[in-house]
Amino acid sequence: MYADLITFFTTNWLGMAIVMLAQCLAVTVPLLVAVAYMTYVDRKVWASIQLRRGPNVVGPFGLLQPFADGLKLVLKETIVPSSANGVLFIIAPMIAFMTALVAWAVVPFDDGWVIADINVGILYLFAISSLGVYGIIIAGWASNSKYAFLGALRSAAQMVSYEVSIGFVLITVLLCVGSLNLSQVVLAQSGWFWNWFWLPLLPMFVIFFISALAETNRTPFDLPMSEAELVAGFHTEYSAMTFGLFFLGEYANMILLSALGAVLFLGGWHSPIPYAPFTLVPGVVWFALKIAFLLFIFSWTKGTLPRYRYDQLMRLGWKVFLPVSLGWVVLTAAVLTFGGWLPKP
Amino acid sequence: MILQALAFYVFAAITVASAAMVVVSRNPVYSVLFLILAFFNAAGLFLLIGAEFIAMILVIVYVGAVAVLFLFVVMMLDINLTELREGFLDYFPVGALIGAVLFAELLLGVGIIGAGSTTITGLNAHGAQVMAIDNTRAIGRVLYTQYFYLFQVAGLVLLVAMIGAIVLTLRSRPGVRRQKAGDQINRTKEQSITVVKVPTRGGV
Fold it and tell me: Do A180 and B59 touch (CB under 8 A)?
């Protein structure tokens, strides 16, 4: 009986399709719940920073607030402006949301817990995260509104600029690992928590985190939707669930970049101390804790820092991060080569 | 196997159709979006023949960077569509000629016409020895050893193009006051404030 089931799920194409679908759901459903509660945590953290209480009315401690918000967005009417480009206007939020979800296919949650264990995992993540900008540009153009358009242009320039420095950060990490596979990246960081790459590559970790803020359009780099200048930036004309998809996509992207930071610099599923009782905790829990730590810093920066001016943002990206990260790539390569620490091919 | 064949035909059909739409569509923004779709499906075709590194690089470089800037520029252009159509018949022979030349070169390169220099058999003979390692390593080994100088020359070409673009667009505008972050950070208390003893009812 069991042998029959195993052959059905491993050889029959229908069985394999069912397994694949189940795997996708097993990643997507917890992710969406995490996105919903990330909005709640965000608001609670800002509230604490500003000495307020935050959402506390819907459910115990306001825990049902995200669902109330979600329900509100679903029930509202979707308004398409008459001068907007109808098809692209609807497609844009779908692209923004979808690119944030498909990237999760290569993220390793634990040893072997990954949907697609591909050899070019880092490149895949980088490629998908560079696609996210299309949702924003198309939304800005299709809205046919000056605020949305300005927000889209800002976002395009900003994301292209900061992708360059993220690319160099990825190169330093994969110089140390010798593989583009994300599971290999985590396995290369086994042992005590000072073996994780955050310490040997500390400047790159800082650059990665700041670039991640810019990639996800979060404060202090939220110029594409700065409410003081552009109403709501690229999603000014969006309402109801089309806006909801942008919102969900933004938070899913934040969690994705935190997961990437945890994989690249905080040792993925490894426990900080490689002895019991720490190793008895499942790797997924450590991974989730690391993601949560990075997400808390996201909320913390949003609660504390003022917004950058646009020329300052560009100066930081091109004149500070680009030379520093490029120099660090050369330095890392030199240290690895002359120190004899090059990973075995 | 049948699934792969099906995927190939889907990718190929969408690539060809969207490439045609790039030329045919009236709105330049649609053209760029169809171009992106064509890039994407070409990456899918690369994946099907097992060239996952090239597929990812195609998406990162062309879709993620080049096409974004294309779209950026095209969206900001104020293009008059009827004006754009006017010279179509004048330019058509030149365009067709260039297309024909490119097509002939492609056929020559693949080796269908005549004895091309880089025949498919030659590539396979080279590929046999690197099959044991994954594509990314194989490309790295060949690119940074055997073709190192060519790689450097390609970098130089890009550098020249970049300097050219900067020279073409750089204008020195007199009278512009730029923010110098270093100066602002290095400012001391002595430079920026003076303490004045103001007599009562005297004013400064």
Answer: no
Give, in degrees to the nearest 5, the angle at Cα A14 between A9 and A19.
50
Which of B3, B64, B134 lies nearest to residue A131, judging by beta carbons?
B64
Contact A35, A206 (CB under 8 A): no
Contact criterion met (CB below 8 Å) for A115 and A271: no
Task: For residue A218, give the 3-state DSSP assignment.
Answer: coil
Coil, helix or strand at residue B111? coil
Q: Which residues of B touch A146 (CB under 8 A)?
A: none
3-state secondary structure of A53: coil
Supply A119's token pair.
């050899």
A234 touches chain B (CB under 8 A): no
In angstroms, the Cα distances linking B34 to B15, B25, B38 are: 9, 9, 6
Q: Which residues of A181-194 are buried (b: 16+ CB within 10 A; e: fewer)?
A: bbbbbbbbbeeebe
* Contact indicator for A114, A182 with CB cutoff of 8 Å: yes
Please state the pTM of the whole predicted model.
0.84
* Amino acid identity for residue A207 in this structure: I
Cα angle for residues A264, A269, A271 (degrees, 5° grid): 110
Q: How far apart are CA B199 and CA B96, in angstroms?
A: 86
Contact of B105 with chain A, judged by CB distance below 8 Å, is answered with no
Write out the H or E segment, with its range, that includes residue A242: helix A240-265
Residues 6+ apart with CB under 8 A from A245: A93, A94, A96, A97
Q: What is the mean pLDDT of residues A236-243?
A: 85
The total number of residues written for chain B in this structure: 204
- Residue A311 CB: number of other CB atoms within 10 A? 10
Q: Are A217 and A250 in contact (CB under 8 A)?
A: yes
Closest to B72 in 3D by CA, of B64, B83, B84, B80: B64
**A99 φ, ψ (degrees, to nearest 5):** -65, -30
Beta carbons within 10 angstroms of residue B204's beta carbon? 6
Dihedrals phi, psi of A7, to nearest 5 degrees:
-65, -35
Please give the Cα distance from A146 to A81 (Å, whole number).
13
B56 contact A CB<8A: yes
* The length of chain A, given as a count of residues: 345
Q: In angstroms, rounded to a whole number, what is the distance separating the alpha carbons of residues A177 and A162?
A: 23
- pLDDT tens per residue, range A183-201: 888 888 887 878 888 888 8
Distance (Å, rounded) from C-alpha A189 to C-alpha A208?
Answer: 18
ipTM, two decimals, is 0.81
Contact A157 B60 (CB under 8 A): no
The residues, any chain, with a CB within 8 Å of residue A86's CB and separated by 6 or more, are A80
Residue-wise pLDDT tens digits, A286-334: 889 999 999 999 999 988 888 888 888 888 888 899 999 999 999 999 9
